[in-house]
Amino acid sequence: MEDYKDSRSEMLLGKQGVGSLRSKRVAVFGVGGVGGAAIEALARSSIGAIDIFDNDVFSESNLNRQILSSIEVIGKEKVEVAKSRIASIDPLIKVNVHKMFYLPQERENIDFREFDYVIDAIDTLTAKVDLALACLEANVPLISALGCGNRLDPKKLIVTDIFKTEGDPLAKAFRKALREKGIKKLKVVYSTEQPLKPINQLEDEVTKRHSPGSLVFVPNAAGLILAFEVVNTLLGN
Q1: Contact in structure between 48 and 117 (CB atoms under 8 Å)
Q2: Which pLDDT value is given to residue 197?
Q3: What's the mean pLDDT in 152-181?
Q4: What residues are paired with 211 via a beta bridge?
Q5: pLDDT given for residue 208 in this prediction
Q6: 48 close to 93: Cβ distance less than 8 angstroms
Q7: Cβ–Cβ < 8 Å for 30, 120
Q8: C-alpha dist (Å) from residue 116 to 51, 77, 150, 217
Q9: Is the Cβ–Cβ distance between 132 and 144 less than 8 Å?
Q10: % residues pLDDT > 90 (the chain)
Q11: Displacement of CA 79 from its chain's centroid (Å)
């Protein structure tokens, strides 16, 4: 099955390129709309080992945009669904499941030096900043997703440095926190589209904050871009 699955990839990357990806280990923090799409793309790109970090379960509100969600998985843990999804695509991939909501206190339980690349697809600022610190200390490349909520146009997504972003409230707070920690650069996937104002407000049951509106287009496109940047970098491009 491995040769058959990889055959189309080898047409563009060569056997050596696909073989190189088979030797890599990538961590994805956050298995939502962005992270789920990134995981799907990594699995189809023959990454050899994928670590997935999340403690959430799927809900009905995920169905409109999260690629790993379906009626059948509502109430199930996202990391376990992602693990099954990866196995259904490529059972040769080693999947390491981490049922956790990443915060700074969790860092000591993770050896970041084991990863060849880290994807940050979470939306908690404290966690995003700490991931940047952890990866810097471990000398591991990191790419972070910025705000995808309240946006419609996937064509407005770009890859840039965090300190070149503007107009994104999350990016503004992220830049400030990184400066305070002495971090001078960070690759991000970022939308140049100004956030829209939701017609109706929906309160998150857990955080009690107003949830952003979202469609399938922007988060999934962001996840694909994240995965592309990882694969492209691991191939030495």
Answers
A1: no
A2: 85
A3: 95
A4: 202
A5: 56
A6: yes
A7: yes
A8: 11, 26, 32, 28
A9: yes
A10: 88
A11: 13
DSSP code, position 57: B
What is the model's pLDDT at position 2? 59
If phi over 0 gives left and psi between -120 and 50 gives alpha, with beta otherwise, what is residue 167?
left
3-state secondary structure of 200: coil
Specify which residues 51 forms β-bridges with: 27, 96
Furthest-apart CA atoms within the chain: distance in Å: 51
| Cα 223 from chain centre | 6
pLDDT for the residue 205: 57
Distance from C-alpha of 45 to C-alpha of 27, rounded to nearest angstrom: 14
Token pair for residue 112? Answer: 């970041």
Sheet holding 49-53, edge to edge: 94-98, 49-53, 25-29, 117-120, 142-145, 187-191, 157-161
- For residues 159 and 188, is the Cβ–Cβ distance under 8 A? yes
The interaxial angle of helices 169-180 and 125-138, nearest 10 deg, is: 50
Report phi then psi at 134, rounded to 5.
-60, -45
